[in-house]
Design a protein that fits this description.
It is a single chain. With 210 residues, this protein is mainly beta. Helix content is 10%, strand content 37%. It contains two helices and 13 strands. The protein is globular, with a radius of gyration of 16 Å. The structure holds protoporphyrin IX containing FE (HEM) and 2-acetamido-2-deoxy-beta-D-glucopyranose (3 copies). Protoporphyrin IX containing FE binds next to strand 5, strand 6, strand 12 and strand 13.
Length: 210
């Protein structure tokens, strides 16, 4: 009885966006408002007066791929797929109208790698990036910079992309997926400008610009 009411209370808290936790990436020390769920992390940092850019992080584990939906579901949302290619991290924007391998997405949005926070180690792959023009899509395919309850999606695959050396690869179906809520406003930081400035290089082979 007591246990069940604690559990119900816990789910209610998660459903109201209180699952958002602060995560500091160990190399860059950037702090993100994050969804933390081993083996997937997605986090964002924004200016105190947000525009349409954010600094983001995706962490995955192993040799498969992780995908993030900026809009929530898989369909008709901006997806970001990230996977390791040996010691390099690959990242590609995708979109699809059907359940099946999503094709490369083009639009006004773009991303730039933050190299200091992008790496593969013996257990994880980590992609830290500046995402420009990545929010407030008129078609609802991404979240809003002021939403305290943004709904986002994740996909985790233990199997690698079909051609992991290629940014335009096809993907096998993920092994698990789901959605979560993120309190975007918890990502506001006075340090944002210095973090965004870390995206100082162009790495077209890694951070695919559609
Ligand atoms: C052949 C490849 C793929 C197939 C067949 C596939 C199929 C599906 C299906 C059937 C669902 C709905 C599952 C359910 O609700 O029970 C789903 C959900 C999802 N997929 Fe995929 N998928 C593929 C690749 C990808 C990729 C590459 C990404 C990301 C880059 C992705 C991201 C998602 C997300 C975010 C969800 C939504 C989770 C949720 O809201 O519960 N998928 N996928
Ligand atoms: C690999 O990177 C992840 C993410 O930063 C970290 O949690 C983990 O401890 C690192 N593993 C090793 C062996 O350094
Ligand atoms: C993937 O890794 C291979 C082997 O290191 C490399 O030749 C190739 O250029 C990488 N692909 C991309 C797009 O960086
Ligand atoms: C980018 O900034 C990092 C960290 O400050 C620095 O190590 C790197 O040399 C810079 N790269 C370029 C291309 O300026």
């Amino acid at each position: 009885m007591l246990l069940s009411s604690i559990l119900v209370g816990g789910f209610a808290l998660l459903a109201s966006g209180m699952g958002t936790e602060m995560y500091t990436e160990p190399k860059t020390k950037i702090t993100f408002a994050s969804y933390l769920s081993t083996p997937y992390i997605f986090g964002i940092a924004l200016p105190e007066k947000p525009g349409n850019d954010f600094v983001g992080i995706i962490v995955g584990k192993g040799t498969g791929y992780v995908g993030s939906s900026f809009g929530g579901p898989m369909l008709n949302a901006l997806l970001l797929a990230v996977w390791p290619n040996g010691s390099k991290v690959m990242a590609s924007f995708r979109k699809t109208k059907n359940y099946g391998s999503p094709t490369v997405a083009t639009g006004d949005w773009s991303m730039k790698e933050i190299s200091a926070g992008t790496y593969v180690n013996s257990t994880h792959f980590v992609y830290t990036f500046l995402c420009q023009n990545c929010m407030s899509m008129a078609d609802g395919s991404s979240f809003s910079p002021t939403d305290p309850l943004a709904v986002m999606g994740f996909a985790i695959s233990t199997a690698a992309p079909t051609t992991k050396t290629s940014l335009t690869t096809a993907f096998p179906r993920h092994s698990s997926q789901g959605s979560y809520q993120l309190d975007v406003t918890k990502g506001y930081s006075s340090q944002y400008a210095s973090w965004a400035a870390l995206a100082n290089g162009t790495k077209p082979a890694v951070a695919f610009r559609a």
